[in-house]
Write a structure and sequence with these properties.
The protein has about 150 residues and is mainly α. Helix content is about 75%, strand content about 0%.
């Protein structure tokens, strides 16, 4: 039977070996999608609260805003963990989130500007694909590889 100190030493050595072997792994560098989702989460929460007819500055409106924000955050976290379980890497998940944010907003902007639904949907879809590709390309360009020392 090992003493508790030996068990801790063995666990620390195993962790150190695992950590040292992970130094050669690629490190994702871009998080554009995550930034935009967090930013638009606040916009969605405030927009939904005001569309329900509540003022954000008053008590019940602030509570509804917080409730909607927490609910949307939970949905986003669950969706992100589902994408992780499916096997999508962090750069791909970030690019998906970015394209999911950019596409519909450009679609709505073009629709309100020109009032042509078919063209606005085509432009929104194209912008979602372009945002996805830009995020992936940026990740490849800004890829942080560990520096090897001699």
């Amino acid at each position: 039977m090992q003493t508790p100190d030996n068990k801790i030493d063995t666990a620390m050595q195993a962790y150190a070996k695992k950590w040292l072997s992970s130094l050669d792994n690629r490190r994702p560098s871009t998080s554009l999608g995550y930034f935009f989702v967090g930013f638009f989460l606040l916009i969605w929460s405030s927009s939904l609260t005001t569309q329900l007819g509540y003022d954000l500055k008053k008590g019940i409106g602030a509570l509804i805003f917080i409730g909607i924000g927490l609910g949307l955050t939970l949905i986003i976290i669950m969706t992100n963990s589902l994408m992780t379980k499916v096997g999508l890497g962090r750069p791909i998940r970030s690019a998906i989130w970015l394209s999911a944010i950019i596409g519909p907003y450009i679609n709505l902007s073009i629709y309100h500007l020109w009032k042509i639904p078919i063209v606005s949907h085509m432009i929104g879809f194209a912008s979602a694909i372009i945002a996805f590709l830009i995020s992936i390309i940026l990740d490849k360009i800004l890829d942080r590889r560990p520096k090897k020392t001699n």
